[in-house]
Amino acid sequence: MSLVVTVGVVSRGLPLGFSLWDKYLGDVLYASLFYFAFSLLWSRNSIAFKATLTCVYVAAIEFFQLTGIPAQLNQSDNLLVKLFAYFVLGSGFSGWDLLAYGIGILLAVLVDRVLLTKIDP
């Protein structure tokens, strides 16, 4: 999970002028991170439950951006509020973000099924 966070932060902090790196890799990793976080909290639940919960969460965050509140928080003078808004809430709605989140959840599910279920006794 720390690798996911590290690569996600680096992709946002060191833009290369390539949208797949600068924007969408972070979105893919964001969704994967929340899948793995929910997996820690609900480890005994099914993969389908964790994937559905993650889909609902990331979609809710993305649609919340339509309210304009995250964009306003991104303009805050308070650094913690600004960082929270930037890294957790985003700023503007994009259907492409939803696609990236779906890819991230799918990749996390594959990791869960192929690697993690073999480790779990």
Question: Explain this structure to me?
Answer:
With 121 residues, the protein is an all-alpha fold. It has six helices and no strands. The mean pLDDT is 85.
Itemize the secondary structure elements and their pairings.
Blueprint lengths: L1 H12 L5 H23 L5 H18 L4 H5 L5 H11 L5 H25 L2
Helix pairs in contact: 1-2, 2-3, 2-6, 3-6
Total DSSP E strands: 0
Order of helices and strands: HHHHHH
Major sheet summary line: none
- Helix fraction? over 70%
Mean pLDDT: 85
Percentage of residues in strands: under 5%
Class by alpha and beta content: mainly alpha
Assign an overall shape: globular
What is the first-to-last residue Cα distance? 20 Å
**Uncertain segments of ≥5 residues (pLDDT<50)?**
none
Tally of separate helices: 6
Name some characteristics of this structure.
mainly alpha; 78% helix; globular
In brief:
By secondary structure, the protein is mainly α.
